[in-house]
Amino acid sequence: MAAPAQMTLFKPEVAAVLLRLYSEAVENDAQLKLEEEAALKAAENGRLDDDTLASIQNRTFMAVAPEVGRLLYLLVRTHKPSRIVEFGTSFGISAIHLAAALRDNGSGCILTTEHSSEKVLRAAQHFEQACLSDLIELRQGDAFTTLAGVEKIDMLVLDGWKPLYLPLLQKLEPVLSPRCLVVADDVISLAAKCRPYLDYVRDRANGYISCEIPLDDGVELSFR
Ligand SMILES: C[S@@+](CC[C@H](N)C(=O)[O-])C[C@H]1O[C@@H](n2cnc3c(N)ncnc32)[C@H](O)[C@@H]1O
User: Fold this and answer.
1) Which atom in ligand 1 lies closest to the alpha carbon of residue 91?
2) In this model, does residue 2 exceed pLDDT 90?
3) 5: pLDDT strictly greater than 80
């Protein structure tokens, strides 16, 4: 019997990039947490000013956990979306998992969007290094602008700022295809910020069936 083809997620060019990014993320994000705590202590009103906060956020990975990455991979393999839209690229870790699955499906593409221009530059390099750039369109800017005009979405991944999940979903609802899968990260760790979104997708009157998966920071899977 022929051996099954190796999954793209585990091919050397993809696995090496993910391994490097995850180990960089652990050290980098821990260091930035200390920087944030020090800046908070030094702040007169107990709040970070916008520039300091943006500087820290523009350098923080905030990536999906490896097990959430694998969940994204297997959802794409089984759901077989033609077009995935991702809100919140950061350095590209989740998009690499999504694109690896599209490569194995043999069809489909991703549009991912990120506000920070520094992160967009880095993410583009990572997509090249993982040999997945041909499957990923990366748009820099505010998702409400960069995603305007998108025509059909078969899978929506929400991983940007949490209070924007609900307004962005509602903005994109007219172009969600029938059977669109919606995946939202951080719904347990940032439950209060995700509350309006969760109330909405869990209310059957809005046409979704939805459930929480207690993986890492919590993932909400919704379908309509
Ligand atoms: C949690 S991180 C994304 C992590 C990424 N999905 C991964 O797993 O590697 C959230 C990202 O969303 C971006 N973001 C937040 N609000 C945004 C907006 N309105 N438009 C585009 N990107 C936004 C932030 O700059 C940040 O990099």
Assistant:
1) 9
2) no
3) no
State whether the Cα torsion 117-122-126-128 is positive or negative.
Answer: positive
Is there an atom of ligand 1 within 6 Å of 88 CB? yes
Q: 12-42 and 117-129 are packed helices; what angle lies between their axes, rounded to 10 degrees?
A: 160
Averaged pLDDT score across all residues of the chain: 96
Q: How far apart are CA 169 and CA 165, in angstroms?
A: 6
CA distance readout (Å), 41 to 48, 52, 184: 9, 13, 32
CA 148/CA 151 separation, integer angstroms: 9
Q: Is 53 in the pocket of ligand 1 (CB under 6 A)?
A: no
Residue 86's nearest CA partner among 78, 96, 95 is 95
Closest CA to 101 of 138, 72, 130: 72
- The whole-angstrom separation of Cα 110 and Cα 82 is 8
Q: Tell me, using a 6 A CB cutoff, whether residue 159 lines ligand 1.
A: yes
Pocket test for ligand 1, best of 70, 84, 98, 115 (most atoms within 8 A of CB): 115
One-letter amino acid for residue 219 of the chain: V
| N residues, the chain | 224
Mean pLDDT check: name the lowest of 4-13, 26-35, 74-83: 4-13
How remote is the CA of residue 115 from the centroid of ligand 1, in Å? 7
**CB crowding 209-223: b at 16 or more within 10 Å, else e:** ebeeeeebbbbbbbe
